[in-house]
Amino acid sequence: MKAYRRKLDLANGRVDLGHGSGGRAMADLVSGIFREAFANPFLDQGNDQAAFPTPRGGRMVMTTDGYVVSPLFFPGGDIGSLAVHGTVNDIAMSGARPLHLSASYIVEEGFPLADLKRIADSMGRAARAAGVTIVTGDTKVVERGKADGLFISTAGIGELPDGLDLSGDRAEPGDVVVLSGSIGDHGVAIMSSRENLEFETAILSDSAALNGLVEAMVAAAGPHLKLMRDPTRGGLAATLNELAHQSGVGFRIEEAAIPVKPEVAAACELLGLDPLNVANEGKLVAVVSPAGADALLAAMRAHPLGAEAAAIGTVVADDQQFVQMTTGFGGGRIVDWLSGEQLPRIC
Amino acid sequence: MKYVDEYRDGDLAAKIAAAIAAEVRPDRTYSFMEFCGGHTHAISRYGLEDLLPANVRMIHGPGCPVCVLPVGRIDDAVRLARRPGVTLLTYGDMMRVPGSKGTSLLKAKAAGADIRMVYSTLDALRIAEAEPDREVVFFAIGFETTTPPTAVALKLAAEKRLPNLSFFVNHVLTPVAMRAILTAPPVPGERPVAIEGFVGPAHVSTIIGLEPYREFAERHRKPVVVAGFEPLDVMQAVLMLVRQVNEQRAEVENQYIRAVTPAGNVAAQSLVDRFFELRESFEWRGLGSVPASALKLRDEWAALDAEKRFSVETIRADDNPACECGAILRGQKRPAECKLFGTVCTPETPMGACMVSSEGACAAHWTYGRFREHDSLRRAS
């Protein structure tokens, strides 16, 4: 089999929207430009956060993220709360306890102050609810047309308990793959409120801080827990492919075991999208050794954010690192990275 | 989901699969072409190949409107979009389709052209009205399914006398392309493939009905089953085709009775006829130049015709010479037999028609099915 990756055309190429969509084009961009430029062992681990020892002992975790969501207010959330949840979750996926965040606002000239206040208030509330403090920030105003209303960048730090070593390269054949709940809610909520694509749905974004759920999972599964990751942009499909690549394994998942709300399935059907590729902001995927799977699932289901947790498949040995799925129809197929952006089909 | 889940019932699929297995004759093979990319997508996405007997082979036809548009027309669209003052509107899945020299609408957009994705032809009217200073061009593509919505937008544009809206028309015709595949002379060096029946595209038939397929049954003796795009629809269509072949019948049958009538949508046909007429010839990716296979605007609507307004002169551009799209579309080769497949040609960097949209034969195989060759190689070693 061929597993060709095309090199970035650094002489003539330009960044296009596909490079930001969480699919393979984005993975190629990051590895071809940023990883090469910044090369170091922390970055090479390829996780959404980095764990590092502090000079006086103990370990900290750090992450950073940018939020460019459109529209800024959507069913179930807004860019402010989303920025907190996304950053808290990136820290929590390492098993660390999130402590402090920074918030950098890039605001377009002409942006309504009332909206800015509403977003900042929402961000503050989300931080308090998640048990983190926003301890520093920055504000820049750019000329009209230079930003789509408002962008937020964050950084976050957390404290990593001793003995915990979760990482995307730890999945091993035989391990169990667990998903915390239904997929695609956030992406569909966003799409339903986009100008020119408005449709009526009761779906709310699942945007939520998962650090409480993670604490319960770490307590229940202990060393059996191998890794966690939140399937945000690119959805469950991109996350499983990332993990397969990082761990050098394959996955076999069962479509029938993956929770998808009927409204989400219907919206995806209408738009020709696959829920596996649609973004989530309050879900996580965990890989656990078989001995810890039952305890982990029980602990997740006892938490409100993991009530629908399900074992969706297993890790298998596969030198091609395929994510294979048994369809609800009984056939087999690959779950691949998305190629660039997921685009609605014309007919 | 009402009216969807019923057609994805795994138990029912197993029963149809058992019926197909019981009815196929072990001493022969069955080769059917699903013309439409929607069917190709369903077959790959639901893993239907695993449910069909080994001697039933599905040949993935060219019926993806994005896939079949030739390089030269993509180049035309890019040139149009780069003109000062022009806003080009396109359906999303056109964005990545490669033109010549590595261009695409996505790349032209990244380089500064005003190219916007729309979800409906009516967005074109809205944008043209809202931005009277822009020359708005709607990139109209697709088979018979998307032609009526373009006709509706043309009708409204004419009624509203919008001076800044025009249409770059690339609508193509299903039955003509099917005929071209069926009657193409064998290519030296390629193994001939006998297509023994067609799964016809249901959405096309909701517009054109069943009559245009009659010639395949009567003149060419090839059964046609017009089928829906849900996996159970496809399974049932295969069973119906197997039965026709076994009984040596060649008829046009309608599996999609829930939406297709023999005459189709007469009002839509009439609206299309009001605005469009046949082109003498049109280039298809993978098939070459096919006479009377596409539509253009009638002369009386010249004011709405972007080709006339901007003096578009298509410069013919060739596909990559190593690309095997033509042989794959005709069923003479499988995707993995093309030496570009998975090397320089992937969904991120498509070289040929079949890899261009998710509905193309190669893209569907790459995205959903390429583990099969690997598994069979592993079993063999």
From TrEMBL, chain B:
Keywords: Iron, Metal-binding. GO terms for biological process: protein maturation. GO terms for molecular function: 4 iron, 4 sulfur cluster binding; carbon monoxide binding; iron ion binding. Pfam families: HypD. InterPro entries: Hyd_form_HypD, HypD_1, HypD_2_sf. Belongs to the HypD family. NCBIfam families: hypD. This is Hydrogenase maturation factor.
